Amino acid sequence: MNNRLYVGNLAYSVRDESLHQQFSQFGSVTSAKVMMERDTGRSKGFGFVEMGSDSEAQDAINGLNGRSVDGRALTVNVARPMEARPSFGGGADRGGYRGGRY
């Protein structure tokens, strides 16, 4: 198993510290990070928590997955590796009008 967890369906008011506190009741929390919108600074509604061990991570999943926090049922599971985003190429032609004379 992996001790890095995905936490979804977070209330937009949740911040790193409160996420850390929620998970600390199941063991040592190495890190807790709520993902934020770059432009607005608003929460994206999900985050990641790294627990001290695999068994603590499993305890956190068992204790928090589906539990209502701030009126929202949390989704807690083992985080998957980030998938590569599709590349849309590069090159000189990036769209725009190409017909007619210049």
From TrEMBL:
Residues 83-102 are annotated as: Disordered. Residues 3-81 form the RRM domain. Residues 88-102 have a biased composition (Gly residues). It holds the Pfam family RRM_1. GO terms for molecular function: RNA binding. It comes from the Bacteria. Keywords: RNA-binding. This is RNA recognition motif-containing protein.
